[in-house]
Design goal:
The complex is a heterodimer of chains A (about 350) and B (about 550). Chain A is an alpha/beta fold. In chain A, about 35% of the residues lie in helices and about 15% in strands. In chain A, helix 4 (about 155-170) packs across helix 5. The termini of chain A are far apart. Chain B is α/β, with parallel strands linked by helices. Chain B has helices at about 5-10, 15-30, 60, 70-90, 90-100, 110-120, 155-160, 180-205, 205-220, 230-245, 260-270, 275-290, 310-315, 340-355, 400-415, 430-450, 460-475, 490-495, 505-520; strands spanning about 295-300, 325-330, 360-365, 385-390, 415-425, 500-505, 525-530, 535-540, 540-550. In chain B, strands 1, 2, 3, 4, 5, 6, 7, 8 and 9 form a nine-stranded mixed sheet that branches. In chain B, helix 15 links the parallel strand 4 and strand 5 (about 415-425). Classes of the chains: A alpha/beta (about 350), B alpha/beta (about 550). At the A-B interface, helix 1, helix 2 and helix 3 of A face helix 3, helix 4, helix 5 and helix 6 of B.
Chain lengths: ~350, ~550
C-alpha cells in the first residue's frame, strides 16, 4: 500500500495519454505545494499559477462566452452559448430575447471542481470543458464562481451556487421552448458534483424545477475508510491525505467527514424520500479512490426512489474529461447529450 | 524586390516566431507582389494539428499549458523527478515554489516545474538520480494532437498551396483551438508581411507610404501579445522603423557608456552567448599561453572585465604555476568622472592577489577603437600576447580604412593568438531591405532563445540590450550605424586578406563548450563546429561565432 503522503505517479502512466498525465500530474504537484499542513492555503500563489482565460464574445469554434456579475453575491458567472448563425450578430450579447421560442435549449448550470478550494469558472481547463459541452451537447452553459475554502467554508459554496441557480432560473434570456421556461440541469465535477447535489436538494425543497443532475466523479466521503480508498490511495494522482485536507478545509472546524455535506447517505444524512428530486446521471471513474462513496450515493438515491443512471468508466482516472483524447470523454459527452435532450420536445 | 534570405533554407526554424518569417518568405515566393494592405487574405490554417506550425500540444495549450509535443516526454520525467523531491522535503519545496515563481511567468513553456526542479535538485541529496524510466504511451498513436515534429519547407509550402481548398475543415474530433493563438497567428503573420513591405518602401524612398504602414502595424500590435513571441520582436522593429522615419536627429553612436555596460552584463547573465564567447576565447588563449612565463592580454573592449577572472584562475592552476599576467583593457571614457577602467583593473588585481598571481593592469581610454595607438598598448618582446575582440571588429566596418588600421597594428604585434567573437549574421548589406530582413530573422531567433531564460531582471534588460542593436541596424546610417555584423565566411576572407591565418579551436574546446552549455542553459541551444571555428546557436541557427587567428608568417617577421 502506498505511503499516506506519497503519490505514485508512475502507476497511472500506462493508463492515460501522455499529455493528460502531464496535465493532471502538474496540478497535483502544484496543489501539493499550495496546501499547508496547518490547514491554510497559499491562495496568492495558487492564483498566480492558475491558467485563466478571458471570456470571448467573438465565437471560436462555434462557441462564445461572456461574463456577468451576479449582483446579490458579487460573483462572476460565465455564460457559454453557441454562436449565432448570422455573423452580423457576433459579438452582441443578447440579454432580452429568449434562447428560442420554438425549441427547448437546455441550460446547464455548471459548478467547477477543485475540491472546494481550487479553480474558477475562468480557469482554462474549465473554460475549455464548458465550451466543449456547448458544442457537443448543444446546450447553454452557465459556469458558476462560488466562494472557495478554506477562506469560505460550508455552506458558502452551496449558498452561492443556490443564488446562482435562482438567478439563472429568472433570466428571460435563458428561456426557451414554446412555454418560455428556463430548462435547467445542474452539473459539476468533483466538488462541483457535490454542490450540484446539495443545490438540487434545496431546489426541490423550494419548488424550483431542476430537470436533471449530472455528477462527474462527485466529491463525497465519510469517516470510515472504504475498500476503494485503501486500494487506490496514492495510485492515480490522488491520496487520502489530500482528500482529508480538503474536507477539513471545507467542513466547519469541529466537524468530521460524516457531516451531511460530505456523507450524503451516512448516519447524519437527511432522507430524500418523497422529495421532488431530479433524475441523476452519476459518472464514476474506475480509478477514483472515492468511488465506493459515489456508488453508495447512487444506491442511496435509488433506495429513496429517485431516478439515477450510473455511468461507470472502468479505465478512467479523475480528470479524464479535461482533454478529449480518450474514448471516455466522448462516451461522457454522448451520455450527457442524451440525458439533457431526452425530455425535449 | 524582396527575396528570402539564403539563411532561411539552411536554418529551418522550429519556433513559432521564426516560423512566421519562414511562412512569409514562402508566401512571397508563391504569390505575386502583395500590396501593403491585402495581407488580410493570408490566414494560416492553424486548426488542423497535422500542419500546425507551432509544434505545441494543442490540447494542453487549450488548458493553458504551452509545451512542445516533442518535449512532453522530458516534461513527464521531470514531473516525476519533482514528485520524488517534493515527497522527501515538502517544507523546503513550498518555500522555493514561492521564490521560484517570482522570477517566472507560469504561462511560459518550459514551465515553473523546470525552474523549480533546477532549484531543488541540488538541494536534496540523492535526488540527482531521478529514474528516467521509459515512458510508454499506449495512446500516442491515438487521437491526441500530433503536430508535425519538424517543419520543413515542403510541409509549409503544402500548407500555403492548400489554403484555398482546406478552409477550416474540422473533423468531429478536432480539439478546440485556443482563442488567442488563432488570432495571434493571424495577426502575427500579417505583421511580418507588413514589416517586410515597409522595409521595401523605405528602401525605395517611399517614405510617406512607409509611414502610414507603420501606423497600421502599430494598430496590429495592439491586437496581439507583445510580451512574447512575434509580438515582442515585431514591436521592436516597428518602433525602430518609426524612429527611422520620424526622428529628425539621428541616434548617436550607441554601444558605449555606463548604461551599455549594465545592459551588457544582463545580457551576459540572461543567455549563454557571451558566456560561450568568453569561455571559448579563454580556452584558446590558455592553450596559446602554454609554456610562457609572461603573458599579456589586450582586450579590445573591457566592459566589466567579466571574461578575465576565469582565465586568471585557470592560469593560476596550471601545472608549473601561473605566469606573470598583464591585462590591457580598452574602454570609453566614463561619463561620471569615475575611472571605471581603473576600478575594474583593481578588482582583477584583487582577485589575482588572492590567488597568488603576479598581475598588472593598464586601462586605455578610447572612444573608438580606431583611436587606439599601438604604442599605448605597451607590448613587450618577451611576452606571449593575446588580443581579444568580443563583438568589436564589426564596429570598424563603416569605414574600410578603420578595420585595416586596427588589424594592421594587431598583425604587427604578431600575437600568439587573436580571438574573435562576432554575431553570426549578415547585417551589413548595402540594401536596407536586405539588412532588415536578415535582422528580422536573426533577432526573432535570438528572442526565441531568450524566452527560455527565466531570470529577471536579467531577461528584461537583456532584451533592452538586444533592442538597441536592432535600433542601430534599422535607424542608423553611416558612422552612426555600428552594428555591422558580418558572418564568419566574410570575416575569414577579411582576416586572410589582412595577413592572418586561422587556428583550429580544437575538439577539446568544442566538447567543453558543449558541456558548459548543458550545465548552464535551457534546451535548444547548440554548439557547432565550422571549419575550426565554433558557433553557438538556437535550434541549428548559429547566432554567434568564435574563431582564433595568428599572423601569417612573412619574410621579415619579428619573432
Amino acid at each position: 500500500m502506498a505511503g499516506s503522503n506519497e503519490i505514485n505517479l508512475s502507476e497511472c502512466k500506462r493508463i492515460v495519454p501522455l499529455n493528460t498525465w502531464i496535465l493532471i500530474s502538474n496540478f497535483k504537484l502544484s496543489y501539493n505545494l499550495l496546501r499547508r499542513p496547518d490547514g491554510t492555503f497559499n491562495r496568492d500563489l495558487a492564483e498566480f499559477l492558475e491558467r485563466k482565460v478571458p471570456a470571448n464574445t467573438i465565437p471560436v469554434d462555434g462557441v462564445f462566452s461572456f461574463d456577468i456579475v451576479e449582483k446579490s453575491t458579487n460573483l462572476l458567472n460565465r455564460v457559454y452559448r453557441s454562436a449565432p448563425e448570422n455573423e452580423a450578430q457576433w459579438g452582441i450579447i443578447e440579454l432580452e430575447k429568449p434562447l428560442s421560442t420554438e425549441v427547448v435549449v437546455p441550460v446547464i448550470v455548471f459548478f467547477h471542481g477543485g475540491s472546494f478550494t481550487h479553480s474558477s469558472a475562468n480557469s482554462a481547463i474549465y473554460d475549455t470543458f464548458c465550451r466543449r459541452l456547448v458544442k457537443l451537447c448543444k446546450v447553454v452553459v452557465v459556469s458558476v464562481n462560488y466562494r472557495r475554502s478554506p477562506e469560505h467554508r460550508y455552506p458558502c459554496a452551496y449558498d452561492d451556487s443556490w443564488s446562482a441557480l435562482k438567478w439563472v432560473s429568472s433570466r428571460p434570456w435563458l428561456q426557451s421552448g414554446k412555454e418560455s421556461n428556463v430548462h435547467i440541469y445542474l452539473a459539476g465535477d468533483s466538488s462541483g458534483g457535490n454542490i450540484a447535489h446539495h443545490v438540487a436538494v434545496r431546489a426541490a425543497k423550494s419548488g424550483l424545477k431542476v430537470l436533471g443532475n449530472i455528477l462527474l466523479h462527485p466529491m463525497f466521503g465519510g469517516q470510515k475508510r472504504t475498500e476503494s480508498e485503501k486500494r487506490l490511495d496514492g495510485k492515480y494522482f490522488v491520496t487520502l491525505q489530500d482528500r482529508d485536507w480538503y474536507w477539513r478545509a471545507y467542513l466547519p472546524e469541529e466537524e468530521n467527514r460524516d457531516h451531511p455535506a460530505c456523507n450524503i447517505f451516512g448516519p447524519r444524512g437527511e432522507s430524500l424520500e418523497g422529495l421532488d428530486f431530479p433524475k441523476s446521471l452519476v459518472v464514476v471513474a474506475g480509478f477514483d479512490l472515492i468511488q465506493d462513496w459515489q456508488l453508495a450515493y447512487v444506491e442511496g438515491l435509488g433506495r429513496a426512489g429517485h431516478d439515477v443512471k450510473l455511468l461507470y468508466l472502468k479505465q478512467a482516472t479523475i480528470g479524464f474529461y479535461f482533454l478529449p483524447n480518450n474514448d471516455h470523454f466522448y462516451t461522457l459527452m454522448e451520455e450527457i447529450k442524451k440525458f439533457v435532450n431526452s425530455n425535449c420536445l | 524586390m524582396l527575396r528570402p534570405s539564403r539563411s532561411l533554407t539552411r536554418y529551418l526554424p522550429s519556433f513559432p516566431l521564426a516560423q512566421h518569417l519562414l511562412l512569409h518568405c514562402l508566401y512571397r515566393k508563391l504569390l505575386p507582389i502583395m500590396g501593403p494592405y491585402d495581407s488580410g487574405a493570408m490566414t494560416a490554417s492553424s486548426s488542423s494539428p497535422g500542419t500546425s506550425p507551432s509544434n505545441f500540444d494543442g490540447l494542453l495549450a487549450g488548458a493553458g499549458y504551452i509545451w512542445r509535443s516533442s518535449d512532453l516526454q522530458k516534461v513527464a520525467q521531470r514531473l516525476e523527478c519533482l514528485e520524488n523531491v517534493v515527497v522527501t522535503s515538502p517544507s523546503d519545496v513550498s518555500h522555493l515554489a514561492v521564490d521560484g515563481v517570482i522570477h517566472h511567468n507560469p504561462s511560459v513553456e518550459a514551465s515553473w516545474v523546470d525552474s523549480l526542479l533546477s532549484e531543488l535538485i541540488p538541494l536534496v541529496p540523492g535526488s540527482e538520480s531521478c529514474s528516467a524510466a521509459a515512458f510508454s504511451d499506449p495512446h500516442s498513436a491515438g487521437g491526441s494532437s500530433s503536430p508535425c515534429s519538424s517543419l520543413n519547407p515542403a510541409a509549409v509550402i503544402a500548407t500555403c498551396t492548400d489554403q484555398s481548398t482546406n478552409q477550416h475543415q474540422h473533423q468531429s474530433q478536432q480539439p478546440l483551438t485556443v482563442v488567442c493563438t488563432d488570432a495571434e497567428e493571424d495577426s502575427g503573420i500579417r505583421l511580418v508581411h507588413a514589416l517586410m513591405t515597409c522595409a521595401g518602401l523605405v528602401q525605395r524612398g517611399d517614405l510617406s507610404l512607409a509611414g502610414s504602414l507603420v501606423e497600421e502595424m502599430k494598430a496590429l500590435l495592439t491586437r496581439i501579445n507583445t510580451g512574447r513571441g512575434i509580438g515582442k520582436v515585431a514591436g521592436h522593429f516597428v518602433d525602430a522603423l518609426g524612429r527611422r522615419l520620424y526622428q529628425r536627429v539621428r541616434v548617436s553612436v550607441t554601444g558605449v557608456g555606463f548604461e551599455h555596460e549594465i545592459l551588457y552584463h544582463h545580457f551576459y547573465e540572461a543567455c549563454p552567448y557571451l558566456k560561450f564567447a568568453h569561455f571559448t576565447a579563454n580556452q584558446a588563449i590558455l592553450e596559446a599561453f602554454h609554456g610562457h612565463d609572461c603573458v599579456h592580454v589586450i582586450d579590445l573592449s573591457l566592459m566589466q572585465g567579466l571574461q578575465w577572472p576565469p582565465l586568471i584562475q585557470a592560469l593560476a592552476l596550471r601545472p608549473g604555476g601561473p605566469p606573470l599576467i598583464k591585462i590591457t583593457g580598452v574602454g570609453p571614457p566614463s561619463q561620471d568622472g569615475r575611472d571605471s577602467l581603473k576600478e575594474i583593473g583593481l578588482k582583477l588585481a584583487d582577485l589575482a592577489r588572492s590567488i597568488n598571481v603576479r598581475f598588472s593592469f593598464q586601462g586605455i581610454v578610447a572612444f573608438r577603437l580606431e583611436d587606439v595607438k599601438p604604442w599605448m598598448l605597451q607590448v613587450s618582446r618577451n611576452e606571449a600576447l593575446a588580443v581579444n575582440s568580443i563583438m568589436q571588429l564589426h564596429r570598424l566596418l563603416w569605414s574600410g580604412s578603420s578595420l585595416d588600421l586596427v588589424l594592421g597594428w594587431i598583425r604587427n604585434f604578431n600575437p600568439n593568438i587573436l580571438t574573435i567573437v562576432e554575431q553570426e549574421a549578415n547585417h551589413n548589406q548595402s540594401q536596407f531591405s536586405d539588412r532588415f530582413t536578415e535582422a528580422l530573422h536573426y533577432y526573432s531567433t535570438l528572442f526565441d532563445s531568450l524566452e527560455a531564460c527565466h531570470l529577471q531582471p536579467h531577461k528584461a534588460l537583456a532584451e533592452m540590450f538586444v533592442q538597441r542593436e536592432i535600433s542601430n541596424i534599422v535607424c542608423c546610417e553611416g558612422s552612426a550605424r555600428v552594428e555591422r555584423h558580418e558572418p564568419l565566411r566574410k570575416w575569414r576572407a577579411r582576416l586572410v586578406d589582412a595577413g592572418f591565418r586561422p587556428l583550429n579551436l580544437g575538439s577539446d574546446v568544442f566538447k567543453q563548450a558543449s558541456m558548459l552549455l548543458t550545465l548552464f542553459s535551457a534546451e535548444g541551444f547548440s554548439v557547432e563546429e565550422d571549419e575550426g571555428c565554433l558557433t553557438l546557436g538556437w535550434h541549428s541557427r548559429p547566432l554567434i561565432a568564435a574563431s582564433a587567428w595568428q599572423a601569417e608568417l612573412q619574410g621579415n617577421s619579428q619573432v
